[in-house]
Design goal:
The complex is a heterodimer of chains A (411) and B (118). Chain A has 411 residues and is an all-alpha fold. Chain A has three domains: 3-96; 102-225, no CATH class; 226-306, no CATH class. Chain A is 70% helix and 0% strand. Chain A is built from 20 helices and no strands. In chain A, helix 11 (227-240) runs parallel beside helix 14 (286-299). The termini of chain A are far apart. The model of chain A is unreliable at 165-170 (pLDDT under 50). With 118 residues, chain B is an alpha+beta fold. Chain B is built from five helices and six strands. Chain B has helices at residues 8-12, 16-22, 27-35, 81-89, 92-95, and strands at 2-6, 39-44, 51-52, 57-58, 69-76, 100-103. The chains are: A mainly alpha (411), B alpha+beta (118). At the A-B interface, helix 6 and helix 9 of A face helix 3, strand 2 and helix 4 of B.
Chain lengths: 411, 118
Amino acid sequence: MDKVQQEVDNLYKQQFGKMVASLLYASRDIDPKTAEDIVQDSFSSALIDWRLQGIPANSAGWLYKVCRNKALNKIKKDKRLEPLTEKLDQGSVETRFSESVLDDQQLKLLFACAHPDLSPKAQVVITLKYVVNLRVEVIAKILGMTIDGVDKLLLRARQKIKDEKIILEEPHLQALKPRLSIVHKIIYLTFNEGYKSSGGKEILREDLCEEALLLNKALMDSHLSNKETAALHALMLFNAARFKSRISASGELMDLENQDRSLWNQELIQLAHDFFTRSQGEDVSTYHLEAAIACLHCIAASFELTDWKTIAGLYTRLLYIHPNPFVELNYAIAKYYAGEKTDAFKILNELQGQSFLNQYYLLNMTIGKFHLLEGNLLLARQFLLKAHDQTNLGKEKDFIGKMVNKLSDPK
Amino acid sequence: MLIVREDLERIGRLSTEVRFSESPDMTDWIRSLVESGNYIGGEPLAITGRYVTKNEVLSDGPFIESKEGISGYDIILAENLEQATAIAQTCPMVMVGFAIREVRPIQPFISKDPEKHI
């Protein structure tokens, strides 16, 4: 039996029933027979596609994605629904039908990977390997590590966990709650890796972001989560909503100022809002604050109309809980656009003084850009060129290059 | 605290430029620690300084000749000593064998007067 057939058969055994049940749960308009047909269809597609393209990194995820799309198409085609209900239903399928079926075993594994003795990077790597089931080569590529580096890390991590006799001899799920904050961090860092540039030509790794969202969704469905989990989910969705606008049609990197806001996914923004509301409670975590900031960006009609003042205030609170030079940089940026330019420059200059931040291209790029806006062309050139040297990413270099060109031709 | 220990005699002979250009790049390591919320701060230290004891002040203390003298430090936040150690193991300078990291938990200071608020 060939590998593809084997993989499909295994997944069929594990997932067929769950997928049908999930579809029925997700949409009122799909009856059991149709649900079964759709799921069956997805497996057939897998068989064909994987024979041609190879088995994908996350094969179950692939199945769920395809199944979800088939379901959405069916809903769109069949029903004469009111536009409102149709939207609701689509949204429902989007959110409720996902691979939110990490079973108990996988959840335990997720918490096992959140071992406090491991470095944060090791926690992420081991989760990507054993919970998300990515291959070592894929993990290495995404995180910008060598395959050897990943192997070493996995070896050490497995050793440590084995020594502690923790792996898979999991205590009852409830006893794992204290690890929740570590699990949150793993998911957050995974999403971040996918969202930011990861070296080389590609700048966004949507797949990794999706994985993070799926993990978090599973967490919420498992009743092990708390309001922080919901806040984290809102944060990730607000960011994911803006994906399509981050790279222009010509392949350029677009910053927040220049992103085409009509490309922002309003459904995801609405969904993010729902989770954000759900996350409100007594405690305000860093995820709550970051989600609030992301929210303010998402609801702003334009860059200029953004509520920079409130955003700056939120950053102040964030810095109080979690002092961090990157956050400080964003704080300075918010202050600048809120009109408090002296303060903004003061903070930026202080950041410049820190030895490692001095090497950070985004800081120098920001200072350069602000000087450009203020008309200090010499200073602008100085900082922009410095930033240009400090990044290896093609897209970032192009972006900075464009600004430098503006210097010789200010319009 | 992650104390960096290096061959100070070797570094002492280099210009500051060469000292840092020859060392592996630390920025990505620090950046990832900042992102994961573990980094608090840190600096490299100059090789020349003063050695102050009860009886004298030296500008060439025994530390100058040390093969494992203190050349810098970083302060990180970690769940426990194990995690701090795991983080230290990934330090680029350690991985190429240029330096040793001594991992010492920062002890809360207990004032003599138990009524004083710390």
